[in-house]
Amino acid sequence: MIFKKFKQDAKGFIFEGITLLSALIIIAILVVMLVVIVKGGKSMFTWEFLSTFPTEGMTKGGIFPAIFGTALLVIIMSIAAVPFGTITAIYLTEYAKENSFIARSIRFAVRTLAVIPSIIYGLFGLGFFIKFVGTGMDSIFTGGQLKWGQPNILWASLTMALLTLPVVIVSVEEALKTIPRDLREASLALGATKWQTIRKVVLPGSYSGIMTGTILAVSRGAGEVAPILFTGAAYYLATLPHSLSDQFMVLGYHIYIMSTQSANVDQTLPIQFGTTLVLLLLTFSLNFTAIILRYRIRKKRIA
Amino acid sequence: MKNLKIHTENMYLYYGSKMALNNVSIEIPENKVTALIGPSGCGKSTFLRSLNRMNDLIDSVKIEGNIFIDDINIYDKNIDVVNLRKKVGMVFQKSNPFAKSIFENVAYGPRINGINNNNELTEIVEKSLQNAAIWDEVKDRLHDSALGLSGGQQQRLCIARTLAVNPEVILMDEPASALDPISTSKIEELIVQLKENYTIVIVTHNMQQAARISDDTAFFYLGELIEFGKTKKIFTNPDKKQTEDYITGRFG
Questions:
Q1: Which of A13, A40, A101, B63 gives 20 to 30 Å between its CA and that of B49?
Q2: What is the ipTM of this complex?
């Protein structure tokens, strides 16, 4: 009797131990990762590193062009993805009938886009933007001279915009849905048109949701490398991009280059760590902002 | 002979295949308070929401029969719903001010009607708030958020917001059901004052309220208009047994 009880207790104890252990492993992985990166990168984390160009065949110097390129990339990407995604979300929540064929098709497309591997976006960008749109533009505007039909920051940003579009659509949709039906009805009952209601009541109440979507998209876009591999990211450039048809350097790709293509990988190790730390800080702080905004939206929904 | 404001003829309303209103014919007089009473689910709110075509927002709703306001069939295909709703305002069960200032809440309707002149707006806002008996309470904080007001104040603000578009009819869907007795009595007083200039149709679950403030009462049950007449008569000497049972609290 007592033995049986002991056996049961032991089983329970072991199982609890296993679950706790796997949970702890997750924390350990994160801690190890952060410690290694911070330890390796913190000595590099200086103003000089952030604000200068790479020197001596990229074995010394800073990562300014990669930071600049990343920033420019996500800005152009947001300009394309946020309005487009917001408008789509408005159609889905405000105009489309909940279970209509078109709404279900759009939702299906959004979900599918969200799970397509990012390298496929890269190939799509190469095929569509560069080979099709770019080459077409060249034959119209420059008489066949190569200008748009090659990788550049515009095509890279637009490719990245496609990748982040589902994030924007879903976040904005979620925010639009938090606007109570009561308020829409109040506006309509005052003789407002549907568009006036959206513009003056629904959208002003959804700004933080739109911001959340934007930030999540930016954070995703800042970290991705695959979509821009074929569409505009450069190995090394001596100057910053000064037109949409220029190539650019970017943080994620810079890490990849440094750790695989560099003439002396060991020598560039501090730069790799430093770049990784910068990229991590960037995405962490963006995600953190998004979490705060989202928390504020949830709180509003409960209130 | 009193003037007719709203009348319906053999009106049916369906949610999908479910009938919610069954052959409703009613004549609602101008500048009176008409109360719609009946147990939950009897169709009185559905009926109310048909009068400014709020039911249009629900895809599955189908309406048969005619509804006239000022002898104009409001379900005619030439009717501009936006204009109809300016003429037939609505106050909801749950007060629903916008997350804007008190001033902007009231100015919302005039603004969407294209009034942008500040003096004109200020005048409309002041007059509307006065007519909704809330001016004295908010005149010093017009630019504070409307969400900081108490429930009763919010509801009177919503009434002011409705008045600001200058409607002829005001539909009220249990406007005081979520309020304390003092706020309720303020709203009731206000409704009685408002009938001088507006035709008011009010849905209420509160028998005493219907008896206190309305001139006419309509009793709905299972989607049918059972009885409609002078409030006094409905509450003291109804023709139908169902009405009497409901009013005396034997069911509902």
A1: A101
A2: 0.91
Q: Rounded to whole angstroms, what are the CA distances from A186 to A122, B48, B89, B116, B209?
A: 46, 15, 9, 20, 24
How do the domains of chain A map onto residue ranges?
Answer: 42-302
Q: Block means of pLDDT (10 residues each) for chain B, length 252 residues?
A: 84 93 94 94 93 90 93 91 94 92 96 93 95 93 93 94 95 90 91 94 93 94 94 93 87 58
Contact B172, B202 (CB under 8 A): yes
Taking contacts as CB-CB distances below 8 angstroms, the residues of chain B near A183 are 96, 98
Question: Are B102 and B149 a contacting pair, CB within 8 Å?
Answer: yes
Instruction: Give the CA-trace dihedral at A186, A189, A192, A193, to 10 degrees.
Output: 110
Q: State how far the Cα of A258 lies from the Cα of A255, in Å rounded to an integer.
A: 5
Q: What is the value of pTM for the model shown? A: 0.82
Contacts of B52 in chain A (CB under 8 A): 189
Please tell me the distance from the alpha carbon of residue B242 to that of residue B238, in angstroms, as a whole number: 9
Q: Do A189 and B54 touch (CB under 8 A)?
A: yes
Fold classified for A42-302: MetI-like fold (1.10.3720)
From chain A, pick out residues whose CB is under 8 angstroms from the CB of B92.
Answer: 182, 185-186, 189
Residues in chain A with pLDDT values less than 50: none
Pairwise CA distance, residues A219 & A251, whole Å:
12
